[in-house]
Amino acid sequence: MTVSGLMNSTKGPWGPGSVRPGNGPDAIGISKTANSDDKKTGFADAIKDYISKVDDLQQSSDTSIQDLLSGKSEDIASVVSAAAKADMSFKLLVGVRNKLIEAYKQTMNMPL
Question: How much is the pTM?
Fold first, then answer.
């Protein structure tokens, strides 16, 4: 059987319901938005929004720690939870930054 025959066969690796290469986003259940009312955000806006959210989590964590130390709050579980959320979001942000820097360096080292 040829490669094209295998790809078109229902008994091959691309059986019914599977995603065939080149079928686009509709094949995997991602719908295209044709509505022009949807707000489109750019990459820079998405990064700024995420940095803002990470900063908010850090400030919330600091506030809850200060409240615990000053005696305004006695719920240590919420303080630990807020600190863990802030820590994980910051680690994720640093990981994304490192990947972006790595991608930039690889792009700059590409031959022309």
Answer: 0.59
